[in-house]
Amino acid sequence: MATAWRYTVVIPAFNEAGSLASVVAAASALPGPVEVIVIDDGSTDGTPAVLERAARESPIVVHRFPGNRGKGAALRAGIARASAPIVVFQDADLEYAPAALEALVEPIESGEAEAVYGSRFLGSRSQATGPLHRAGNWLLTWLSNHLTGLRLTDMETGQKAFRRDAIQALDLVEERFGIEPEITAKLARAGWKIVEVPVSYAGRTRAAGKKIGLRDALWAIVCIVRYSL
């Protein structure tokens, strides 16, 4: 008999050997049962070995791309494989604490919304890295809100939760970080309700491994316009 999962945690991972084991263990320990799906996006460090050890300790699902394709491709692969009624995104780098996922799934379980975004800018928990990072997030979220009619504070957040039927119904195509504005625009066009809950955030620098850059921010603007009109 198939397991009746409470929700599915999708973890895209690219060269995150230093933090991935902790993220997988924390996600697997959430109240559930929880289905954990890790998409190894062609890692070239010790990530595959970390996942081999993790799979021996927990019943996780691992899918590996032969080469690096991008966060969007990894998330789409995880969404397609999810079997629980709720799908949540969790980054592999510990910038977001997996324990916060409980707060994200509750509004969906109660029927309040079809999607929940974990906002880094709500309440007293805001810990975004530096004024440039905050300004960039504000600009992208403002433009997304302007074109979609939403009132989000953090469109780019890496912690999101969805009703599985809602997220799987979207025809997603973005390969890299453009997946975030694409999902938001297509949820809005489909009429799905999105709410936000505050989450904590411990941002890291590019020197510490952060992968999103200026090119991704510029492409996000293109995606916001493309998928909102």
- pLDDT < 50 stretches: none
Secondary-structure element order, N to C: EHEHEHEHEHEHHEH
DSSP strand content: 15-25%
As for the CATH topology, it is: Spore Coat Polysaccharide Biosynthesis Protein SpsA, Chain A
User: Could you state the CATH homologous superfamily?
Assistant: Spore Coat Polysaccharide Biosynthesis Protein SpsA, Chain A
Radius of gyration: 16 Å
Supply the number of helical segments: 8
- CA-to-CA gap between the ends? 44 Å
What percent of residues adopt helix (DSSP H or I)?
A: 40-55%
Instruction: Label the structural class.
Output: alpha/beta
Kindly summarize this structure in a few lines.
The protein is an alpha/beta fold. It contains 8 helices and 7 strands. Strands 3-2-1-4-6-5-7 form a 7-stranded mixed beta sheet, sandwiched between helices.
Secondary-structure blueprint:
Elements: E1 7-13, H1 20-28, E2 34-40, H2 47-57, E3 61-64, H3 71-81, E4 86-89, H4 101-109, E5 115-119, H5 130-148, E6 160-163, H6 164-169, H7 179-190, E7 194-198, H8 214-228
Parallel strand pairs: 1-2, 1-4, 2-3, 5-7
Antiparallel strand pairs: 4-6, 5-6
Helix pairs in contact: 1-2, 5-7, 5-8, 7-8
Folded structure, characterized:
Helices cover 40% and strands 16% of the residues. With 229 residues, it is an alpha/beta fold. It has a 7-stranded mixed β-sheet with strand order 3-2-1-4-6-5-7, sandwiched between helices.
